[in-house]
Amino acid sequence: MARKADRPPFYPGDITLGRRSSKKATGNGESGFVGLPVLDAEPVANGRPRRPDWLRVKLPYGPVYKKLVSLIDEHQLHTVCQSARCPNMGECWTAGTATFMILGNVCTRSCGFCAVITGRPDAGLDFDEPRRVAEAARLMGLRHVVVTSVNRDERQDGGAPIFAETIRAIRREIPGCTVEVLIPDFRGIWEALQIVLNERPDILNHNVESVPRLYRQVRPQAIYERSLEVLRISKEQGLRTKSGIMVGLGESEEEILALMDDLVDVGVDVMTIGQYLQPTKMHLQVVEFIHPDRFRAWKEIGESKGIQHVESGPLVRSSYHAERHL
What we know:
Layout: H1 62-74, E1 78-79, H2 80-83, H3 89-94, E2 99-102, E3 106-107, E4 117-118, H4 129-139, E5 144-149, H5 160-173, E6 178-182, H6 190-197, E7 203-205, H7 215-218, H8 224-236, E8 241-247, H9 253-265, E9 270-275, H10 292-305, E10 309-312
Parallel strand pairs: 2-5, 3-4, 5-6, 6-7, 7-8, 8-9, 9-10
Antiparallel strand pairs: 1-2
Helix pairs in contact: 4-5, 5-6, 9-10
C-alpha cells in the first residue's frame, strides 16, 4: 500500500467536535482538566440502547481481585483496566491478569471513545515506574505482561524511554517472561518509535481503533495512514504485530473488510475486534450492538485473508486473552 504524505498532527483543542458540554469533566467525574470534546452520534431508536444479554459481564470480586487492587495501589501504578473501564476487568483480575498503563493516567488526546482522563500531564517522566511495574508483575506471578500507556504528545519522545526501560525491567525481574506493548503512534516521530522497537518486545500492538471515515469522531488527533505505518515499520523489523478495532460506531461491512485488507498489507499477525461500549454520557453513543454471529464471521474472514489469528467477540479488547496471541 502506498504511503501517503503525513499532514501535521492535531493537538488537543485544535478541533471542535460538535456541541461541547458546558461542564468541565475528565471522563471519571474529577474536575480540573479540560472538557472532553465529543461528536454526537446518530440517535438510536428510543434513545440510549439497552445492552443485550450477550454483553452482561461479571463484577470484580474475590481474594485474587482484592490482592491485585492492593498491589496496584501499593506500587502507585495504573491499569488500563481501571482507567478505560474495561468490561473484562472482573474476569481478568479474578484470573490474576492485568494490563499496566505507564506514563501516568492523564492523556493529551481526546478520543471520542476512551474513558481515560484528558488533560495536561505532570511535567517530566517517572523513571522509577518501570521498576514498580516489574516488581508488581513478579508479585502477581505473571508470565506474559502487557504494557500500554496514555499519549504524551507534549514530549518529543512521546514517553518512549519509559516503554523501553519497562521492557528491560520486566525481563530482569522475571526471566523468561514475555512482554507485549500496546503503543501510541508517537505523532509519527519514528526516532521515538525506534526506541521501543530496539527492545524487541514479543508483541508490538498498535490499534487502528476504527475505519478511516470515522476518525474525526473516534480519533481526532490520529491519522489512519500513520497508524498503518507504525505497524509496517514494526513488521519490517521482524516483530510480531497486532492491531484492533471497535465496532458498533456506524462502520459498514465493506469498510471493515477493507480495513482487514490494509492490516494484511502491512503484515499484521493478530487482530482484535470488539464491541464499542459507551463509557460515559460525554462519549460517543453506540450506533449498533453487533450480534456474536457477526463477530464469528469476521474471525473466519480475517483469517482467510491472511491474518494469522483474529480474536473477535463482543467483549474482546486489545489485551483479552493476550497470552494466547504468542
